[in-house]
Write a structure and sequence with these properties.
Hypothetical protein yqbg; 5-stranded antiparallel β-sheet; 3-stranded antiparallel β-sheet
Length: about 190
């Protein structure tokens, strides 16, 4: 199973104004750095939780449909499934009908049921599912706890920017960060 990020977010869950206020910065001199740190904090939090904080489109590539008929999508919240393609042995794609599909996009993981289960002709990545996921366009619906975690992480990265090499960023996860994101993390055995 491979997930491909098809589009960059239109907006980050935190604005530069929110970050400047949190860091108590009065000028816009650091805005380029702050924008990069916002992205790094969001990407880290998304990896830790499996949540999509900034709405965007994805492609999930599968070798075959699950035997129980229900596809588990390891990103949440899934807003909609836009297309399902199945490839034949020659590599030609055919669209699978989404009529009668059921999507539980709020579940973790999100779940998709199709009335007509696709049967690929090629052995690797024979099925592609395109979907839109994320809390919202401008981060307004991102839980405040997750925004607070991002601000803590961002502040730590901002404070340590000269201490470690740029390729080692983010080098610091602040105290309390793990407790803030714990309710949103899915832990496996």
């Amino acid at each position: 199973m491979t997930i491909i990020d098809l589009s960059p977010p239109l907006a980050e869950p935190l604005t530069l104004a929110e970050v400047r206020a949190h860091l108590r910065l009065d000028t816009e001199d650091e805005d380029e750095l702050l924008a990069a740190l916002i992205t790094a904090a969001r990407e880290h939090l998304e990896r830790e939780t499996g949540l999509v904080l900034a709405a965007r489109d994805f492609r999930l590539c599968l070798d075959q449909w699950p035997a129980d008929g229900i596809l588990k999508i390891p990103r949440a919240p899934v807003r909609e499934v836009t297309a399902v393609l199945v490839y034949d042995g020659a590599g030609d794609a055919a669209s699978v009908s989404l009529d009668g599909h059921l999507l539980d996009g709020q579940a973790r993981p999100a779940r998709l049921y199709l009335r007509d289960v696709p049967k690929p002709g090629r052995g690797i990545n024979g099925i592609e599912v395109e979907f839109a996921a994320g809390f919202g366009e401008a981060g307004a619906s991102v839980p405040e706890t997750l925004k607070r975690a991002m601000l803590l992480h961002l502040a730590a990265m901002f404070a340590c920017r000269g201490v470690v090499a740029p390729d080692a960023q983010p080098a610091v996860v602040p105290l309390g960060y793990d407790r803030l994101i714990a309710p949103f993390c899915r832990r496996g055995l």
